[in-house]
Q: What sequence folds into this?
């Protein structure tokens, strides 16, 4: 299914933009902005590859990713003003991106012979860890710990894929998984869902 | 010595709890709390395995650890109030935990053929790095840099083990090492020990 | 060219000192100071080795580095006052250090068969990531994101080396590269160069 490659590239680009924009907001210089874009875009896949022992990590062997990420910098510079108005478009891309990153991470982990539970965890790591690095490097408490049940959407997407894949095949399971992630995130925003957790005392 | 496995599991559980409680204090959502519990419990062993080149990292190949860590979340939710009253019990568990994590890390590093000095360092990393990740992810200056000569206790425990093991055998050396870690930490608290360091100017 | 080893050791020592001094400023205890010194000195090379899959990481196989880094602690304690007056000397060492770390990282990455672009990135990682870890662990926004086109100097140094090496040989290309890094950093300070980046809105 060649469309996966295209959406993977689109997801990478969206992640790179989110890193670049974070760096701009924090007034990092050009190089800091590039590093933050790179770290956000490849951070999740890199940690996954390190943990499962698949090195050199994936993006190093495919220069397309690096060029794509670097191109996010002039893109944000030229269209930054316009970008802040199309948040909804970014939200769509970002949701499709994390759904696909989750599935790609999940599959790669299963391929090296690890258990489905670990594969789900590595899928989530692939999808969300780039954002964690972005937030740590810009001295923010990682967003993922505070908002939008971001990682939870990935978990449900991963479960949807794993359950569906044996019944309906890879392609449709991927579509279903993307749909689940989108749905959870949209519902979370519309209904102000969050995952409460407090200790009674 | 099968008891090591049990105390390793107990140590893992205590580390997971400390991550969960830190996430609760920072008002992370449920997923953030789970991630912080996981990162705290497996962070040290993960960094050790990455550095010595033993991948996939250990906890991925043994689902028991993951279930145990996940179970720390409902446990803290149900017994959080009670837990804050039994700090002394936690202190005991935590000290035994870091002593055993130190020895396990030390042995694993020696087994891949690295020097005793590096093995000691990897032992300490195994014991303390989970706490460093916990603090970095919750935007705190890592506790280890400020308090209780925590890592120093691990260093003395590691030395005690390495010196004793050739004379008294593995089992007794482990007991001695746990005893040394406990003693150093108790003394540090009773006598307000700390490791001073300041530049004269 | 044996002088590389010496300057590599000198660079390692300067990085260790910068970590130690940062720990002292933040009032870390002795152990925290040692860890910060170690992390700063070996952090860049460690991340590079992890990413390119060369484990156990380099410094673990050569105890000289560890002893050298540890010796930075008493050195800073004894000469801390004097050190703060010789900032220019440190600047020279530090610049030579990052230039050489860049080239060493670049060469090692090329040796495992990765592309020149990735090799340049890994060269920069080797040179600057220790400082990023130092700043993250001491709860600072990484300096590299804010000042002195530090990483940019490494990039130009790496390009200078890569272009020159086929014409003038390894030794002279290294000297040229160090010269480029020094020149860029001195000019950046004298002329208040920085890499501006802002989104128009």
A:
């Amino acid at each position: 299914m060649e469309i996966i490659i295209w959406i993977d590239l689109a997801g990478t680009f969206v992640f790179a933009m989110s890193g670049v924009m974070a760096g701009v907001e924090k007034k990092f210089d050009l190089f800091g902005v590039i590093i933050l874009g790179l770290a956000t875009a490849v951070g999740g896949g890199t940690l996954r590859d390190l943990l499962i022992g698949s090195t050199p990590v994936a993006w190093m062997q495919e220069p397309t990713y690096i060029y794509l990420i670097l191109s996010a910098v002039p893109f944000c510079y030229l269209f930054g003003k316009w970008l802040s108005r199309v948040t909804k478009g970014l939200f769509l891309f970002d949701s499709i991106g994390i759904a696909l990153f989750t599935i790609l991470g999940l599959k790669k982990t299963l391929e090296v012979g690890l258990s489905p539970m670990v594969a789900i965890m590595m899928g989530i790591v692939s999808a969300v860890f780039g954002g964690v690095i972005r937030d740590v490097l810009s001295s923010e408490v990682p967003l993922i710990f505070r908002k939008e049940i971001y990682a939870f959407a990935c978990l449900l997407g991963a479960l949807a894929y794993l359950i569906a894949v044996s019944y309906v095949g890879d392609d449709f399971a991927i579509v279903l998984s993307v749909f689940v992630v989108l749905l959870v995130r949209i519902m979370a925003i519309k209904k102000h869902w969050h995952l409460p957790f407090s200790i009674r005392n």
About this structure: Chain C has a mean pLDDT of 82. Chain C has one domain: 3-190.
